[in-house]
Amino acid sequence: MTLSFFDQFMSPVFLGIPLMALALTLPWILFPTPTTRWLNNRLLTLQNWFIGRFAHELFMPVNLPGHKWAVLLTSLMLFLISLNMLGLLPYTFTPTTQLSLNMGLAFPLWLATVIIGMRNQPTEALGHLLPEGTPTLLIPVLIIIETISLFIRPLALGVRLTANLTAGHLLIQLIATAATVLLPLMPTVAILTATILFLLTLLEVAVAMIQAYVFVLLLSLYLQENV
Predict the structure, then answer these.
(1) Transmembrane ranges (predicted)?
(2) Which end of the chain is more exposed for a tag (fewer CB within 10 A), N or C?
(3) How far apart are CA 128 and CA 181, in angstroms?
(4) Is the Cβ–Cβ distance between 41 and 206 less than 8 Å?
């Protein structure tokens, strides 16, 4: 049976049982668990330092009430990074290539920021729909445009993460297939293609981390507008 390049993005099923929940749960096992000791090992110390620096940089421009989201957004960042990085390993599945999962993460969090803004400061939240100094004739048009842009935000969050990871995985598979086919025919070209594949894999590692950071960073910016 001929396999499509897009078969790697199908949700894994074993004996009729979907393995999506398992794919979402296993990454948490890889993180070292905190201890009650005064001195931790190097890995746990590095993890704590990274979490502290990330939370500090992410919430520096956010007002004090928004700091309640620090644990949630930091956990989401680590969760997305682990899923994206593990998806680069051979014979693994990347749950974040599924638009349904990304939308399931983006839409509730975006909606929570909007509800917080409408509850705490409704005047300022609605004021974002109409820039100051707008001509009278453009007011209805701008309100419609800003409302559409507001509701597009969760869709943009989910599609951006899905598209970047899907494109990277497809490129890796295409170049790997080309290197395999060219190896018996043109070894020199195959070696050059394998070198490009190695560099592309390094780029995808960076993309996996950057896209997780961008996802959480945009959520923090939406939160900043509403607190």
Answers:
(1) 12-31, 69-89, 101-118, 138-159, 171-199, 205-223
(2) N
(3) 55
(4) no
pLDDT by position in tens, the chain (length 227): 445 666 666 777 777 777 777 778 877 777 777 777 777 778 888 888 888 888 888 888 888 888 888 889 998 998 999 989 888 888 788 888 888 889 999 999 999 999 998 888 888 877 777 777 777 787 888 888 888 988 999 999 999 999 999 888 888 888 988 888 888 888 888 899 999 999 999 999 999 999 999 999 999 989 888 87
CA dihedral of 161, 167, 169, 173, whole degrees rounded to 10: 170
Dihedrals φ, ψ of 87, to 5°?
-70, -15
Tell me the three state secondary structure of residue 19: coil
Give the predicted TM-score (pTM) of the model: 0.84
DSSP state of 136: G
Question: How does 99-122 read in b/e, with b if 16+ C-beta sit within 10 Å?
Answer: bebbbebbeebbebbbebbeeeee
CA distance 187 to 185: 6
CA dist., res. 192 & res. 67, Å (int): 49
Report whether 44 contacts 35 (CB < 8 A). Answer: yes
Best CA proximity match to 224, nearest among 25, 67, 94: 67
- Greatest distance between any 2 Cα atoms in the chain: 70
